Amino acid sequence: MSLTDPFTICLICIIGLALLGLPIGHAMIAGSIVYLFAAGLDMGTAAEQLLNGMYTSYILLAVPLFILSAEIMNSGSMTERLLMFCNALVGRFRGGLALVNVVQSIIFAGMSGSAIADAAGVGKMMQKMMTDGDRYPASFAAALTAATAVIGPIIPPSIPIVLYALVSGASIGYLFLAGMVPGLLMGLMQMALVVMTAKRRNFPVEKPVPARALPGITLRALPALMMPVILLGGIYSGVTTPTEAAAIAAAYAFLISAIVYRTVTLRGTYQTLLSSARTTASIGMLIAGALVFNYVITVENIPRTLSAFLQGFELSPIMFLIIVNILLLVLGCLLEGTTIILIVLPVLIPTAQVLGIDLVHFGIICVVNIMIGLITPPYGLLLFIMTNIGQVSLRSLVREITPFLIAMLVCLAIITFRPDLVLFLPRFFGYQG
Question: Taking a C-beta distance cutoff of 8 angstroms, is the pair 86, 98 a contact?
Answer without folding.
Answer: no
